[in-house]
Amino acid sequence: MNGEVVITGLGSVSALGLNTDDFWSAVKEGKSGISAIQGFDEAGLKINLAAQVKDFNPADYFSNKDLPLLDRYSQFALMACREAVVQSGLERDSLWQAAAVIGTGCGGKETDEITYAHLYKQQKSRAHPFTIPKGMPSAAASQVSMQLSIAGPVFTVSSACSSANHAIAQAALLIRAGVVDVAIAGGTDAPFTYGLLKAWEALRVVSVDNCRPFSVDRSGLILGEGAGMVVLESDRHARDRGAAILARLAGSGMSADAGHITDPSADGAARAIQAALRDAKIGCQDVGYVNAHGTGTLANDRTETEALHSVFGSHAKSLMVSSTKSMHGHALGASGGLEFIATVKALQEGIIPPTINFTGPGEGCDLDYVPNVAREKVIRVAISNSFAFGGLNAVQVIQAV
């Protein structure tokens, strides 16, 4: 057994910026990455707001040789992984025996959309020969493996909005079991295609006027895109090489609601939080901050608040709870990775991210949601929640060093 798992690198791409410094600067300043949706001329699209990655030219980051095999979601994954590895200080040859566990909720939707337009709209008879290797759900993991020379365990986790947290949990288990000393993990998604937007539109959970988690007038989520990746190491390995340790991944908890496909369960969420705290051997009173799943939908925010009351009891009123989705949108399988990074930075800097656009507590939402303005507060322990469609829940406990 390798014992403790520590975090030595962070990498992100989001509507708030193409790197973690820009992401965190926007988060702590309460800046929104949500704006009018761009790139869609089709009539009848009702979704008018999105948290899209801006000022991004793939040719600035990838060679002409590589681009034909890189769906947008793979591009984001590679950029975030590269940044995380650079911060960790790991040399390329030291990654050979590492693991990479990459979460995604959607996979290569851009590739699917292009293929369907080619076949059905343009009436072409053949698909591009790279369609499968470019668009398959495991493409991003394979590309990370090939481009970073990672030859240890490499695989994809797909559990909708919990994909990144599940991936991080699996990577940590590999380290704790002694299978590897180093793992790159997180999530990536690029859901902005016409077909997928119409599918989300049909669910009627997307807001037309903004994302206001936990607010009385909240009206739904705003879709986002990007990637959030972290480098995890065994504490021994990180210390032996003199790495700068950013925080400790103290524990992970997972559960399933075994209930409704879209209606979340407070009991299922509570069991994941409790499992994470047990795994970390940390008491409820020690937790100071919760990076909430906080989608801005009527059901999620009320249910998550109920789960926090259930687990933390009277201490729930002392928790600071915020949803950074109010800024970077709901990036689906990438959300947990972005939120994990925001939680690590909160512990490092003693700055609690706000829930922006907050207009007042909704029914059943009676906690401290750090409304609109970040708060300076040194904390030692935080949790990051991900609760997905299908009732698939994953929670991380992160501890300051």
The sequence of SSEs as H and E is EHEEHEHHHEHEHEHEHEHEHHEEEE
* Quaternary form: single chain
| CATH third-level topology of the largest domain | Peroxisomal Thiolase, Chain A, domain 1
Number of domains: 2
Alpha-carbon distance between the termini? 21 Å
The helix/strand class is alpha/beta
Keywords:
globular; alpha/beta; 10-stranded mixed β-sheet; Peroxisomal Thiolase, Chain A, domain 1; 401 residues; 19% strand; two-stranded antiparallel sheet
Describe what this molecule looks like in 3D:
It is a single chain. A hairpin with a 3-residue loop joins strand 13 and strand 14. The strands form three sheets. Strands 5-4-6-7-1-8-14-13-9-10 form a ten-stranded mixed β-sheet, sandwiched between helices. The model has no long low-confidence stretch (mean pLDDT 97). The protein has helices spanning 20-29, 72-88, 109-121, 131-135, 139-148, 163-176, 194-203, 235-240, 266-280, 298-312, 325-328, 335-349, and strands at residues 5-13, 35-36, 49-50, 99-103, 154-157, 182-189, 226-234, 247-256, 289-291, 320-322, 351-352, 375-376, 381-388, 392-399. It folds into two domains: 5-240, Peroxisomal Thiolase, Chain A, domain 1 (3-Layer(aba) Sandwich); 252-399, Thiolase/Chalcone synthase (Peroxisomal Thiolase, Chain A, domain 1), CATH 3.40.47.10. Helix 2 (72-88) packs parallel to helix 5 (139-148). The radius of gyration is 20 Å and the shape is globular. The chain contains twelve helices and 14 strands. With 401 residues, it is of the alpha/beta class.
